[in-house]
Amino acid sequence: MKHIISACFFLFSLCMSAQSVTVTVDQNVTLKEFFKQIESQTDFKFAFTDQIDTNKKYFTQKNTYKNIEMSKLITELNQTSIVQFSIVGNNIFVKQKAQTQKPTKKKSKLTGHVYDDERQPVIGANIYIKELETGVVTDANGKYSIDVPNGSYTVQVSYVGFKNEEKRVSVSDDTKVNFNVDADSQQLGEVIVMNNKAVDIKTTQMSVNKLTMQEIKRIPVAMGEPDPLKSILTLPGVTNAGEASSGFNVRGGAADQNLILLDGAPVYADSHMFGFFSIFNADIVNGLDLYKGGIPSKFGGRVSSVLDVTQQTGDFEEYKVNGGIGIISSRLLVQGPLQKEKGSFILSGRASYAHLFMKLADNNNSAMFYDLNAKLNYRFNAKNTLSFSGYFGNDIFDINDRFASTYGSTMGILSWKHKFSDRVNSNLSTFYSDYRFNLEIPIESFKWDSNIASYGLKYNWNFQQSEKFKINYGIDGLYYNFNPGVVKPTSPDSQFNYMQLDKKYALEASAFVDFENQITEKLNFRYGLRYSMFYRLGDETISTYENGQAVVYNPLYKIYEEGTPNGSISYGKGKTISKFNNFEPRAALSYAFNDETSIKASYNRMAQYIHILSNTQSPLPMSIWTPSGPFTKPQLLDQYAMGYFRNFKDGDYSLETELFYKNVQNRIDYIDGADILANNNIEQVILNGKARSYGMELLFRKNTGVFTGWISYTLSRAEQKTPGRTPEEPGIANGDWYLSGYDKLHNLSIVGSYELNPKWSFNGNFTLQSGQPVTYANGYYEMGGIHIPNYSLRNENRLPLFHHLDVAATYTPKPDKKKGWQSYWVFSLYNIYNRKNAASMSFTTNEDTGANETRRLSIFGIVPGVSYNFKF
Fold first, then answer.
1. In this structure, which topology does domain 21-96 adopt according to CATH?
2. Which of 1, 85, 293, 612 is surrounded by the fewest CB atoms within 10 Å?
């Protein structure tokens, strides 16, 4: 009986396998689609293990099989497919091919760079090997590296906004292959993006936003000039103090809590013309990364965010020129080879000329800026590259010969990159960064000069043990020279005497290690530790106070007052005044449910040892940096974040949502009526408190097609608390939590870009924010016939709702022209419906009527802009 059943089963199988079908398979056909073709023509059903993803594409070659018997089809497919088919009765079983079925091949390293059509490295491009269904992402230098078995492969490069590039590559030993990708701004909707997710689902990195220069140049801004710094205000969790204000605030943090880096060197002032322009020239900037949380161990020194800005690398093969002419400023960039394929240079300059129009109108006022960026690169060989980056910028103001001011920055960075092996490389860099501010008031016959200068050294190593385990480690050193100011009389009858405020010196050193570990296909873990040390150094004399309190409370008038020094301690040159050290652990975890969805969580502690002395919400050019010391402790941050990340339709759409909580210890605040400018004993107006912020961020993007853009929304709260030091003291706002000046309960940005045709594109940006917290007058009292306002508790009120809509149109006369003179026009309207957003409120008495008045100051109404841009 057993033999009869077996024979019947065998005959049944022969009959089934003799059925003929017609099917087509290629690299774009998923298993699910293949199953449908077979099941619609036969009685076969498919069975498969959990390891098989039917939405994946397992076929490596394109073939059409006509009227082929099932047994022959299965034989053919098993020779070319990376899965195994087998017929059992009326079932077709599908499983992963066993390792023994494919002989083990020697592995080699496939490396190279990805460049765009400007010969700039493309950061974050996806390198995908079709046959292996695996890939990597290019690093900050546009470089990729992956271990593959020897063989022949189809390698595809993809990046949003660029055409896909594909090459057939044979690997028999360590192989280097470079790729060049072309921008595809005209037909984005037709690009097929393979494994190019808008959100990297599996990486542990979260709370970071990246903007390419293509995105930055599409965002309309005031004066019609693209501005990298203004562009980040469209991202969730990022705000500033309002129109024409410098600095930016991240997740409720102050502007001085942001670490801003230009090619690795710290930037101490980020704007021109009191905030109308940033110091970053969009022509030479290659891209920017904004870290809001989950910050890697290699960064330190600030407690709110890290803005990492990189400059372009000059073209190694041909000379190029591009620039633009705008209403109030123009720019020019030149780049080319110093020695073909070995050395390159890039120079870029900007200058404003609004002051010339003032002169023509017999206006004695003057306001202008200029800056110059440069970068030189030289490749000695495949393992050694030397580069130099530089920046110099200045602002000049002159108001009716009554007020004159110049301020600006100078930076230089020398970097040596060395490759020890395929697994180990290093970057040794040294830099100088200086910010200076000069003020002269001729009618008062005095000048005031101040500056901060720093000298730094960094040595970082990257070690890749395998694709699943990487180690980054390094050391940093930074020496500071703070000059709070020197007052100089400019005439013999000046009321001012020469006075040098105490200079301050400090040394900051740190070491870090960071591990990236892929635990499973779905679980990734990054963990690290930074150890930082800070030394406040002499030559300096420190005042001492009774009970160690530089600020005293007057119970009679219920106010805080400056304490009176009762002595001093002198420290010689290089002697330690104060020292601090902190361990700063970092950790981040990601779990991918599938290729489209993941959750992430992170924690980081950071220490900040230097602070800006300013009681305004937006840092001013005269704001003074000061180090931690006997009366000013380092700020310490603990930040927790978790989020949900999702890609839709193979990356056409993406969603990022995050929750965060930040707690900052030792956040300084100022007593009412604090006098900060030219104060040699600044500790007399400072109180130490704490700060916190928490909220939710949402970022939804449309990444491909003729219409692209994003919507970002943040719901958050930022608060400070400065309690009294004794039960009798009220602190600030009665010692309760009060809104910080950076609180924006609601923050909404909508950015869109539409490609109408190759000649015309349109861009728009809508911004809506809660008004900035302020302190209003809630009454007044009269003294000597003068009405003096009486103010409410600190930041108890808000400015009116802030919003504006900006639009721009780009016209390219000859879009198909790829050589010779190429140009385009940009027409823009900032604040198209002429919203009079309040920059501040002042409380005064009308001189004519004697009535109390509240006056709103607005900076911008509608602002038209036009610029002509070219390259050749």
1. Phage tail protein beta-alpha-beta fold (3.55.50)
2. 1
CATH of 307-871, one of 3.90.1150.10, 2.60.120.510, 2.60.40.10, 2.40.170.20: 2.40.170.20
Residue 645 has pLDDT above 80, yes or no: yes
- 242 backbone φψ class: left, alpha, beta (φ>0; ψ -120 to 50): left
3-state secondary structure 513-569: EEEEEECCCCEEEEEEEEEEEEEEECCEEEEEEHHHCCEEEECCCCEEEECCEEEEE
Q: What percent of the chain has pLDDT over 70?
A: 90
Candidate ranges 350-364, 477-491, 776-790; pick with highest mean pLDDT: 477-491
Among 238, 283, 288, residue whose Cα is nearest residue 267: 288
Taking CA atoms, 684 is separated from 42, 552, 627, 675, in Å, by 89, 8, 15, 9
Q: Lowest-confidence range among 159-163, 432-436, 441-445, 638-642?
A: 159-163
Apex CA 780: angle with CA 776 and CA 785, to 5°?
140
Q: From CA 275, how far away is CA 273, in angstroms rounded?
A: 5
Under DSSP, the state recorded for 223 is G
Output the average pLDDT for the chain: 85
Please compute, for residue 387, the number of CA atoms within 13 A of its CA located in the half-sphere on the CB side. Answer: 23
